């Protein structure tokens, strides 16, 4: 089935053509949304809202343009809207503050333990490790390994 003819029929209000388009794109759109929001319910809601917006703006659809690009753009903006809404959630702020406090405690405990071991006469092999993260960006971190007493060196 030719997508441009499907879009033309959707513009005229043909619900069957809309259902055909939904069946063609909904699963890909769901995977796209889920990749960002990591929630089944929110991803399903984004898919539903995106198709509702597409239906409500069907008069503006251009049969010569990709409906997939159009619906994915709608979904992308829905995802951004969802993130903004979550950032305004006071529970998220509380969680982020809690996580930051835990990180400070963990780093502080590690630094304190490392200092204690050094005072007790331990030395470590300090290694700067370089890796690429999953986005291809360079990341560096320090690894302390092979603890041994100075007397053993």
Oligomer: single chain
Low-confidence stretches: none
SSE order in H/E notation?
HHHHHEE
Range of helix content:
55-70%
What's the story with the biggest beta sheet? Answer: 2 strands, antiparallel
Radius of gyration (Å): 26 Å
Structural class: alpha+beta
Strand content: 15-25%
Q: What is the number of helical segments per DSSP (H or I, 4+ residues)?
A: 5
Shape, per Cα inertia axes: elongated
Major sheet: arrangement of strands: 1-2
Rounded average pLDDT: 82
Number of strands: 2
Q: Distance N terminus to C terminus? A: 75 Å
Can you summarize this structure?
With 153 residues, the protein is an alpha+beta fold. Helix 2 packs antiparallel against helix 3 (40-56). It has helices spanning 3-11, 15-37, 40-56, 67-87, 90-119; strands spanning 122-132, 138-149.
Can you give a write-up of this model?
Helix content is 65%, strand content 15%. The protein has five helices and two strands; from the N terminus they run αααααββ. The chain has a two-stranded antiparallel sheet. The termini are far apart.
């Amino acid at each position: 089935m030719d997508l441009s003819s499907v879009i033309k029929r959707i513009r005229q209000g043909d619900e069957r053509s809309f259902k055909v388009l939904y069946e063609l794109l909904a699963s890909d759109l769901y995977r796209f949304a889920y990749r960002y929001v990591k929630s089944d319910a929110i991803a399903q809601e984004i898919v539903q809202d995106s198709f509702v917006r597409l239906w409500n703006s069907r008069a503006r659809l251009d049969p010569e343009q990709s409906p997939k690009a159009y619906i994915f753009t709608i979904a992308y903006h829905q995802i951004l809207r969802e993130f903004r809404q979550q950032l305004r959630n006071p529970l998220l702020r509380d969680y982020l503050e809690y996580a930051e406090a835990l990180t400070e405690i963990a780093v502080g405990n590690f630094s304190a333990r490392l200092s204690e071991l050094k005072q007790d006469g331990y030395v470590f092999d300090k290694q700067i490790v370089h890796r690429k993260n999953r986005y291809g960006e360079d990341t560096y971190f320090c690894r302390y390994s092979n603890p041994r007493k100075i007397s053993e060196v």
